[in-house]
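Tutorial handout. Part one gives the primary structure; part two gives the three-dimensional structure as tokens.
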Amino acid sequence: MVKKENLDKTNAWPFVEAKKMLRERKSIIEKKGKIILQTGYGPSGLPHIGTFGEVARTSMIVNALKHLTDLPSEIITFSDDMDGLRKVPDNVPKKELLEKNLHKPLTQVPDPFNKFSSFGEHNNQMLKNFLDKFSFKYSFKSSTELYKSGFFNPTLQVILDNYDGIMNIILPTLGKDRQKTYSPFLPICPETGHVLEIPIKEINKKDLKIVFDNNGKDLEKSILDGDCKLQWKVDWAMRWYALDVDFEMYGKDLIESAILSTKIIKLIGKTNPSGFAYELFLDEKGEKISKSKGNGITIDQWLEYASPESLSLYMYQNPKRAKKLYKEIVSKTVDEYLELLEKTNNQDEFQLLMNPVWHVHNSKTPKEQTIMSFSMLLNLVESSNAENKDLLWKFVKKYKKDISEKDYPIFDKLVGYAIRYFNDVIKKNKKYKKPSSEEKIALEALIKKLDDCNDQMTPEDIQTLIYSTGKENGYSKNLRDWFRLIYEVVFGDENGPRMGFFISFFGVKETKELIKNKIK
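Part two.
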């Protein structure tokens, strides 16, 4: 049990948001005896890494709540699968099939992958599959099911009763032309199956029916049982109301929508959830990651190259700062994860609460000493030409005879990740420097200096010899340039491992041969 004084002191953001929610909704939460958190997903495209981020971060808040209150918590993952398909995603097959079914509810659009009865159901299953892969605890809710089953009916009636007030909230935010056609209720066309955005002619509150102007023809629809769905901002407020949501985080691009939905839920008689606006995820070009484009790194790609925990760490860090998501960011994040995990071995309780890895592991951090950084392991993959885990492990054991795979499960997985990541991502970006005649002389001097070394020397002693070699060969004023030369010639990069450690691990003889081959 975490001490109360440490819980009071910590300003780790999951605790900050959990405390804020408990403070803002104290009487509501106590009355119902439960805390409900929601994450939203629009299945108009395949789930992307941003969707994962929202569930991961919400789960971190649930972990914080467990230490702050005895009340049970539930995460609802809601899929807006009754929304109309507005455009064809770039990253799916059979685009012409989807083109023919534009504007239909996503659960009425055929599945281009031929696996499920609809595109919406396919994407919903994709979402559940990868959330299950991370062992997230959540309750999945489908918009289509809740509309058609009648679950939303009581709240839809409340929305209709407050029609004029809702229009007064929404209309001032629209242009003059859109104001003429706007309706919070969107009927499903009986002829085309499309979700129609058409104006209302008449409202029959007694029978809960609306007459719409469908291009000059009257279209009468009940607001119940999925015959109509709500426009996005009204739908969001309705969902908060019907599901009794206490917390929801959302992207910065939805702040204006959240403001309007907040006004609507207050109008219809409930308090808005506690909110948290996070910055957006960008690809390497600085463009927003999109489900329809499929740009940026995918969940599956990240998990090819690194652990789920490293991805969760990336989601934890700086949620209110825009973050670029691309393959090259993975190795840096893995090294940060290893460094933070190593720190947990010597931290007190308060320091642990401030350590991101504590939140990543739901307050149960594994105990494993770090053998080497991921970047160092990548250098080892290149230098040893290891093409599978067994070969690389043999190489590691050659210099670390007292370790075995079963005692280092985190490192064992890291070995496999490093081989794939090096071959898929690092290798193609390598640009090896061809040394000038003067630079070649300096590197040959280093090879000669290594003749004085052996595999029993400490990394610090080897590092000292490398320093002295640089100073004796024209780099006394800028040793940074000396090491950059070594890295660019040997590793094809401006940055590299601490050479004393690398040589003590890789072997003196092997390093000399490596440098000789690179000079040639």
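Part three, for discussion. The domain at 4-172+232-282 is CATH 3.40.50.620 (Rossmann fold). The longest strand covers residues 35-41.
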